[in-house]
Design goal:
With 581 residues, the protein is α/β, with parallel strands linked by helices. The chain contains 21 helices and 18 strands. It has a seven-stranded parallel beta sheet with strand order 3-4-2-5-6-1-7, sandwiched between helices. Strands 8-13-12-9-11-10 form a six-stranded parallel beta sheet, with helices on both faces.
Length: 581
C-alpha cells in the first residue's frame, strides 16, 4: 500500500509544482462597479458567505492560477460567490465559462446572471438544447470572437468548436454530475486559468483532493435566516402515505415533486397518480422530451398551473421554486447518496416546513450499501449537512483514485484516515520534511477486545472511541478516554477493559519501535524486532528468568504466560524490556 501511495505522492507533488510554477492572471482589486453589483444582492450575506467571497477574490487577485472548491448546502449562497467572481473576471476584459450539468440549470443560471448584470456592459449567453442549431452556432461564433463575455452551458461548451478568445475563469457547478471524459477536457482548459467549483455534496475524489491540499476549500455552513431542516421519511412504498402527503401539501397551497426515474413506465405512473388523486393537476416531464416542451411545462409549473410535477431526476440540479415543499422519490435505493441529497435540496427553499419521502420497494430488495445511504439521509437532516454527507459517502464507498477514474482498493483496506495520513507523510518526505513513520503494530493475543452494543449503542460513537484509543500516544491520554467512558456509559466490562489494555500495549510498542507481539503455543509471548542495550540487557535477564532474549533474531520470548492472559502483567514485562533498550 505504501508503494502505491509513494507513486501517488509523486503525482500529487508534480501537480502541486505545475500549479505553483504556472503563471496565471492576477485580477485587479475591486472597483466601484464591483461594489455596485454587490449592493444589488437582495439578501443579507451570511458570515460564511462573506468569508468565501473574500477567499475567492483573494485567490483571483494572486498571480498563480486559482483552484477553489466552494462547498455549501442548497440555497446557502454559492451562486452569489460565482456572480461576484464572474463579474470581477469580465470587468478585467476576461471571458468566463460556466459549466452546469443540466439544461434546466443552464437556463436558470442564465436568467439569474443576466438579470444581475443587465445594467452593466457585459454580454451573457447560454448554450443549451433549448436553442435551435442555427442559434447555437451563432452563439459559439460570437463567444470565440470575444463578443460574448460569459457563456453558460452543459458539457456542450467543452466541445472542440468552443474556443474562447481570452478565457480568465471557469465556474463548474455540481462537478459530481460530469463524466470522466468531461473532467479530462476541463483539466486541459484549466491549466492556466482560474477555476471555481461549486457543490452541495462534493464527490469523494474532489473532497479528498481538497483535504490533501491539491484544491483550496471554502465551506459555507451558515444557513440563511428563516429556513427549516427538511423532515425526511425513509420507508417501504405505501400509496396511502403518498396520498396523504400530497393532499396535505395541496391543502396549504403548495406543490409537489414526484420523482420516478424510469422513462419506460412513467406514463403508467401518471395514470396511477390520476386514480389516486383525481383532483390534482399533474404535469409530466423527462429528459427525452423535446426541449421546447420541457420549457413550456416547467414554466407552467412555476406559474402554479399544476400541483404535481411527475419527473425523472432531471430536476436534481437547478429547480429553485419556493412553492414546492414536498418531495416524493420512488425507488430511492437506485440513486447515489449525493443524488438523493441534491433531490432533497429541491424542497425547503422558503420558510415553509418541507417534507421528503424516500420510498423503496421492500427491505429484502435493498443492498447493504443502499440501506446505509438511505439511513444517512435520515441521520443528516440539519441545514448545512452536505459536507457531513460527503464524508459519510467516503466511509460507505471509499474515496476513489484521486488522479484517475478507477476506485482505489487500498482506501478500503486501511481506512480513509490512515490513507490520508500516509499520503501526507509521503508528500512531506518529498518536500524534505523529516517524517516519523507510524509503525503498524501487530498484536495477536487470544482474548476478545471490543465495545459491545449493550455498552455503547451508537455505531458512530463506538467508531469514535476506537479511533481515539488507536491514536492515543501515551497512558495519560488512554486514562482520560477511560474516565470519560465511565462517566458517560458506566463501569467498564471485561471486553472493553481488554481493549483499553491492548491500547496501552500498542502505545508502548509504537513508542519503542516494536512491530509485533504474538501469543504462541506453549504459554509464551513472542516480541519481534527488539534490540537491547548490552549492559541493560544483562540486568533485565538476570532479574527475570521468564524473559529469553535472542540478539541474532532480535527477538524476545516471555515464558509462563497463562492462556487467560493478564494484560497488566504483559504491560509490566514490556515496560521492563523497553527500559533495557
Amino acid at each position: 500500500m505504501r508503494k502505491s501511495v509513494k507513486k501517488l505522492a509523486v503525482d500529487l507533488a508534480k501537480l502541486y509544482a505545475e500549479r505553483q510554477s504556472a503563471i496565471g492572471h492576477a485580477f485587479p482589486p475591486d472597483s466601484s462597479w464591483q461594489a455596485e453589483i454587490e449592493e444589488i444582492f437582495p439578501f443579507r450575506e451570511t458570515e460564511d458567505q462573506i468569508k468565501a467571497i473574500k477567499y475567492v477574490k483573494g485567490a483571483m487577485e494572486s498571480p498563480g492560477p486559482m483552484d477553489v472548491l466552494v462547498i455549501g448546502d442548497v440555497g446557502f449562497g454559492k451562486t452569489e460567490v460565482a456572480i461576484r467572481a464572474a463579474f470581477k473576471a469580465m470587468e478585467d476584459g476576461k471571458q468566463v465559462l460556466m459549466l452546469v450539468p443540466t439544461t434546466i440549470l443552464a437556463d436558470q443560471h442564465f436568467i439569474t446572471f443576466s438579470g444581475r448584470f443587465k445594467k452593466f456592459p457585459v454580454n451573457v449567453d447560454v448554450l443549451s438544447r433549448f436553442r435551435r442549431r442555427k442559434e447555437q452556432l451563432r452563439i459559439i461564433e460570437d463567444f470565440n470572437l470575444g463578443k460574448i463575455d460569459m457563456l453558460i452551458g452543459t458539457h456542450r461548451i467543452l466541445q472542440k468548436d468552443v474556443m474562447p478568445l481570452d478565457l480568465g475563469l471557469i465556474i463548474i457547478d455540481e462537478e459530481q454530475r460530469f463524466g470522466v471524459n468531461s473532467k479530462e477536457k476541463i483539466k486541459l482548459l484549466k491549466k492556466q486559468v482560474d477555476v471555481l467549483t461549486l457543490t452541495a455534496t462534493p464527490i469523494p475524489r474532489t473532497l479528498h483532493m481538497s483535504m490533501a491540499g491539491v484544491k483550496d476549500i471554502a465551506l459555507i455552513e451558515t444557513y440563511p435566516e428563516g429556513r427549516n431542516p427538511i423532515e425526511t421519511f425513509v420507508g417501504e412504498m405505501d400509496h396511502s402515505i403518498v396520498k396523504n402527503a400530497i393532499e396535505r401539501e395541496m391543502a396549504r397551497g403548495g406543490q409537489v415533486y414526484y420523482v420516478y426515474n424510469r422513462i419506460s413506465g412513467i406514463e403508467q405512473k401518471a395514470d396511477q397518480l390520476v386514480r389516486l388523486l383525481p383532483e390534482a393537476r399533474i404535469a409530466l416531464t423527462h429528459g427525452q422530451m423535446d426541449g421546447q416542451k420541457i420549457e413550456k411545462i416547467m414554466t407552467g409549473f412555476i406559474n402554479k398551473k399544476y400541483d404535481i410535477l411527475l419527473t425523472t431526476s432531471i430536476i436534481e440540479s437547478g429547480m429553485d421554486i419556493e412553492n414546492v415543499n414536498t418531495l416524493i422519490v420512488e425507488n430511492s435505493h437506485m440513486f447515489g447518496l449525493s443524488q438523493l441529497y441534491q433531490l432533497r435540496g429541491r424542497v425547503g427553499r422558503s420558510s415553509e416546513q418541507a417534507y421528503a419521502y424516500l420510498f423503496y420497494p421492500g427491505r429484502k430488495n435493498l443492498s447493504t450499501t443502499a440501506y446505509k445511504r438511505l439511513r444517512t439521509l435520515t441521520e443528516y437532516t440539519d441545514l448545512g449537512s452536505g459536507y457531513n454527507i460527503a464524508m459519510r459517502d467516503l466511509e460507505i464507498r471509499g474515496a476513489g483514485e484521486i488522479l484517475g477514474p478507477r476506485q482505489h482498493g487500498h482506501i478500503n483496506s486501511v481506512g480513509y484516515d490512515m490513507y490520508c495520513q500516509i499520503i501526507k507523510e509521503e508528500i512531506d518526505k518529498l518536500k524534505g520534511i523529516r517524517v516519523e513513520e507510524d509503525i503498524n503494530v501487530q498484536i495477536d493475543l487470544p482474548l476478545s477486545a471490543y465495545i459491545p452494543k449493550n455498552y455503547i449503542n451508537s455505531q458512530k460513537e463506538r467508531i469514535n472511541i476506537y479511533r481515539q484509543l488507536g491514536a492515543a500516544e501515551n497512558f495519560g491520554k488512554i486514562d482520560e478516554i477511560t474516565r470519560n467512558l465511565i462517566k458517560k456509559y458506566g463501569e467498564i466490562s471485561g471486553v472493553v477493559s481488554n481493549l483499553i489494555g491492548l491500547s496501552r500495549i500498542k502505545s508502548l510498542l509504537r513508542k519503542a519501535g516494536i512491530e509485533s507481539l504474538k501469543f504462541s503455543s506453549g504459554r509464551t509471548v513472542i516480541i519481534k524486532k527488539v534490540l537491547l542495550d548490552n549492559s541493560r540487557a544483562g540486568d533485565l535477564l538476570a532479574g527475570n528468568k521468564d524473559i529469553l532474549y535472542q540478539p541474532r533474531f532480535r527477538q524476545i520470548t516471555i515464558k509462563n504466560i497463562d492462556k487467560k492472559i493478564d494484560l497488566d502483567l504483559v504491560i509490566e514485562y514490556l515496560s521492563d524490556i523497553i527500559g533495557a533498550m
